[in-house]
């Protein structure tokens, strides 16, 4: 990037590098990494553009850009991702919360609940977002990854939400019943993994991406065991991958859930499958 460029020139050069490397969203990524390097909120970048970069800021920016050129996700580089109404800490032990997952949060908030279980909680983004909107409710998040659970606990504390987090393989360590069960489980089939962007395939936790099979293993376990952990009238809501909605809906119906439906995301793709336990 040269010696002591001003901020605008450093950003321009970095974006050019990202574009040349074929990084999707290079301009937005460059700005996020630049704000991180300067330790500034994005809305203050304009004020900083005409100033020379300090040696420390230049080093931080070059390191961040190099990481992105290696296809490390921006959220991992800067350590956080905006989701729903909060920023969540992100590490290599957790999935990067996606905007489309907000469809699940929005749908879950359409009806009241006093207890919620989040299976495969990861960063805790879904559970914490729900509890922040319903502070009178109690919530539990599960994961098989201890490092992910620690990230979720830290996010809950940072955002000011009270929740329980337990190590569990789906329902194996879960006790009690809940008004709402949510999950964004690993749904990528093994034969689809090679086609993923390297940002995802090489950097995010594999066990949170794929079941190493047909992509439906988690849904079979969740649909089978959810009724025993739902209150009468309780809801099960799961995020699904492309083309899986009808199959997951069939699993819910086979498990005895009613009012099963498929909800689209903002792009019109099937995203959330919903079912209700009979009263």
TrEMBL record:
InterPro entries xref list: DNA_methylase_N6_adenine_CS, HemK-like, N5-glutamine_MTase, PrmC_N, RF_methyltr_PrmC, SAM-dependent_MTases_sf, Small_mtfrase_dom
Keywords, comma-separated and alphabetical: Methyltransferase, S-adenosyl-L-methionine, Transferase
E.C. no: 2.1.1.297
Binding site for substrate: 184-187
Catalytic activity: L-glutaminyl-[peptide chain release factor] + S-adenosyl-L-methionine = N(5)-methyl-L-glutaminyl-[peptide chain release factor] + S-adenosyl-L-homocysteine + H(+)
Residues annotated as domain Release factor glutamine methyltransferase N-terminal: 9-79
Biological processes annotated in GO: methylation
Record-listed S-adenosyl-L-methionine binding positions: 120-124, 143, 170, 184
Entry keyword RNA-binding: no
Domain Methyltransferase small as annotated: residue spans: 101-188
Role: Methylates the class 1 translation termination release factors RF1/PrfA and RF2/PrfB on the glutamine residue of the universally conserved GGQ motif.
Family in the record: Belongs to the protein N5-glutamine methyltransferase family. PrmC subfamily.
NCBIfam families associated with the record: hemK_fam (TIGR00536), RF_mod_PrmC (TIGR03534)
Protein name: Release factor glutamine methyltransferase
Organism whose genome encodes this protein: Paracoccus halophilus
Gene responsible for this protein: prmC
């Amino acid at each position: 990037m040269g010696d002591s460029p001003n901020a605008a020139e450093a950003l321009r050069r970095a974006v050019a590098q990202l574009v040349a490397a074929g990084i999707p969203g290079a301009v937005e990524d460059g700005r996020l990494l630049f704000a991180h390097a300067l330790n500034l909120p994005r809305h203050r970048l304009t004020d900083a553009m005409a100033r020379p970069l300090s040696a420390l800021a230049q080093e931080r920016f070059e390191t961040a850009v190099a990481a992105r050129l290696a296809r490390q996700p921006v959220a991992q580089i800067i350590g956080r991702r905006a989701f729903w109404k909060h920023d969540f800490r992100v590490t290599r032990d957790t999935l990067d919360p996606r905007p489309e997952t907000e469809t699940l949060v929005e749908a879950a908030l359409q009806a009241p609940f006093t207890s919620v279980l989040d299976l495969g909680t990861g960063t805790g983004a879904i559970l914490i977002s729900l509890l922040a909107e319903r502070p009178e409710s109690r919530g539990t998040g599960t994961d098989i990854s201890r490092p992910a659970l620690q990230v979720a606990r830290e996010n809950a504390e940072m955002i000011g939400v009270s929740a329980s987090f337990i190590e569990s393989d789906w329902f194996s360590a879960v006790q009690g019943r809940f008004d709402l069960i949510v999950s964004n489980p690993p749904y990528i089939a093994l034969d689809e993994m090679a086609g993923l962007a390297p940002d995802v395939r090489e950097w995010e936790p594999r066990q949170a991406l794929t079941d190493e099979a047909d992509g439906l293993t988690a849904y079979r376990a969740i649909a089978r065991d959810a009724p025993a952990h739902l209150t009468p009238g309780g809801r099960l809501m799961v995020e699904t991958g492309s083309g899986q909605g009808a199959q997951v809906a069939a699993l819910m119906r086979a498990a005895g859930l009613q009012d099963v439906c498929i909800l689209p995301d903002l792009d019109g793709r099937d995203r959330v499958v919903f079912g209700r336990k009979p009263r």
